[in-house]
Amino acid sequence: MVLQSLNLCTILLFLAIASQVSQSLHFELHSGRTKCISEDIKSNSMTVGKYTVVNPNEAHPSPQSHKISIRVTSSYGNTYHHAEDVESGQFAFTAVEAGDYMACFTAVDHKPEVTLSIDFDWRTGVQSKSWSSVAKKSQVEVMEFDVKRLIETVNSIHEEMFYLREREEEMQNLNRATNSKMAWLGFLSLFVCLGVAGMQFLHLKTFFEKKKVI
């Protein structure tokens, strides 16, 4: 039991650390198409994002075909960021609702079709805080700066572990409810099958009696 608890804590700690790693993505998007990227964010967590359409010819301004629209929404449909016909931009907000947040990119419709290359950096939790700027502003020593960063990381991991525990309990409750419903459905199906079999038996008995077979 102790070994299982240690293994569970190790797994939760790994997931908590992994969840704090930023998403730095590079992807392609065709004209008139939409691509969405999701991120699971807990409530009261800070999240920041930065996106840029790569200019195919850096010596000249980006063509009109290299424009995108972006919308960042929560799992409840609330919009936290929206921009139209832009080449680059950024967003930052504190998540009020826990769950999957979606960043959807849409390339402007253009004929002939072109392919856009997009760089997207999405940071959540402790990774979203610019510790280097904090250290620069306060002029603290390197050791003190590292200690502050570690304390912030540990607090974030601690909160993430409680969040994962709550999600695990929700999933267990959902599994119990699903199993209970499936059990009742099984009993109902058995009752219906027995009823249909009884009706068929009575029908056949009546039919054979009329034909004087039995």
Can you walk me through this structure?
- It is a single chain.
- This protein is α+β, with helices and mostly antiparallel strands and 214 residues long.
- Helix content is 44%, strand content 30%.
- The protein contains three helices and eight strands; from the N terminus they run H-E-E-E-E-E-E-E-E-H-H.
- The chain has helices at residues 2-19, 131-138, 142-210, and strands spanning 23-30, 34-41, 46-53, 68-73, 79-86, 88-94, 99-107, 115-124.
- The strands form two sheets. It has a four-stranded antiparallel beta sheet, with no helix packed on it.
- A hairpin with a 5-residue loop joins strand 4 (68-73) and strand 5 (79-86).
- Helix 1 (2-19) packs across helix 3.
- The longest helix is centred in the C-terminal third of the chain and has 69 residues, at 142-210.
- The protein is elongated and about 100 Å long.
- The chain crosses the membrane at residues 182-202.
- Keywords: Coiled coil, Membrane, Signal, Transmembrane, Transmembrane helix.
- This is GOLD domain.
- It comes from Arabidopsis thaliana x Arabidopsis arenosa.
- It is a single-pass type I membrane protein.
SS summary, helix count: 3
Q: Determine the fraction of residues in helical runs and give it as a percent range.
A: 40-55%
Report Rg. 29 Å
Number of strands: 8
Give the overall pLDDT as a whole number.
79
Inertia-based shape: elongated
Helices and strands: which structural class?
alpha+beta
Largest sheet, strands/sense/barrel: 4 strands, antiparallel
N-to-C series of helices and strands: HEEEEEEEEHH
Q: How is the largest sheet built, in terms of strand order?
A: 1-8-3-6
The proportion of residues in beta strands is 25-35%
Terminal residue distance: 66 Å
Low confidence ranges: 1-21, 134-140
